[in-house]
Amino acid sequence: MGRQDEEVKLLGFWVSPVVKRVEWALKLKSVEYEYVEEDIFNKSPKLLELHQVHKKVPMLVHGDKVIVESLLILEYVDETWKQCPLLPLHPYHTAMARFWASFAEDKLLRGVWMALCTQGEEKERTLKSVIEALEKIEGELKRSENKYFGGECIGYLDLALGWISYLLPIWEEVGSMKIVDPTRFPAITAWMNNFLEHPVIKHTLPPRDAMLAYFQWRSKEIGSLLASGRKGHPPHAATLSTPYKEQPGNPKYAIKESPRMCKEVSVIGWTYRS
């Protein structure tokens, strides 16, 4: 296991929910770290060189060690810095937390993203599967009768599911869909409110307007690619150039078209290419 006093760096992307869960874990444990913003559409040499297989964010660098995959990073952080434990102490409860995290990643996170990027019958089928999966999460939370999945403190499973609290409402709005009905999911709704009220979570969320603008554009891009793939031909460049709109009271987004048909997006002082 690495020394706790070794330098810690986190390579991430501002709007990525899997990066955010690692940030939260480090902050909950009061671990000092350097955050390095990555352009996931034009990856830096550093990101490409650090790991011989995995070229994605989040990437945690602890001394001379590189750890990848957000859920694995959470476990590494929990084992390395013992304060504010994230995983349960009992092996059975630990196994169950890992199971539900994996279940939510596969059935919820991927499912909601697919529903956001599709239309018609495919969207409806995906939403049906997502809501069925969410009902199982609701039942698990009701059985625990705790403030969080981790008990009275935020734990591993809360961090794994944390995107539901702030990002799912964004995706619901962008995709014109309703997934978390408070009358149908009272336990999840209460958990979302509790999670968002925690100081570490409340003060580290990405700006809402910036998330809306990004996912409005990104979901259309992915939707165009999916639709064109089904038709057997690549999308026309014109379908990949949906502009952000400046609206009174919203953050300003400066868009520049490049020869690669990518956009440079300046969002409240940060610049990303997407």
Stretches where pLDDT falls below 50 for ≥5 residues?
A: 235-274
The ordered string of helix (H) and strand (E) elements is: EHEHEEHHHHHHHHEEE
User: What is the average per-residue confidence, as pLDDT, rounded to a whole number?
Assistant: 86
Query: Count of helices?
Result: 10
Counting helices, strands and paired strands, the structural category is alpha+beta
Cα-atom radius of gyration:
19 Å
- Could you say which overall geometry the principal axes of the C-alpha atoms support? globular
Structural account:
With 274 residues, this protein is an alpha+beta fold. Helices cover 51% and strands 11% of the residues. It is built from ten helices and seven strands. The C terminus is likely disordered.
What's this model, at a glance?
The chain has about 270 residues and is an alpha+beta fold. It has ten helices and seven strands.
Summarize the SSE layout with pairings.
Elements: E1 8-12, H1 17-28, E2 34-37, H2 45-50, E3 59-62, E4 65-68, H3 70-80, H4 91-117, H5 120-144, H6 156-161, H7 163-175, H8 186-197, H9 199-202, H10 208-231, E5 253-257, E6 263-267, E7 270-273
Parallel strand pairs: 1-2
Antiparallel strand pairs: 1-3, 3-4, 5-6, 6-7
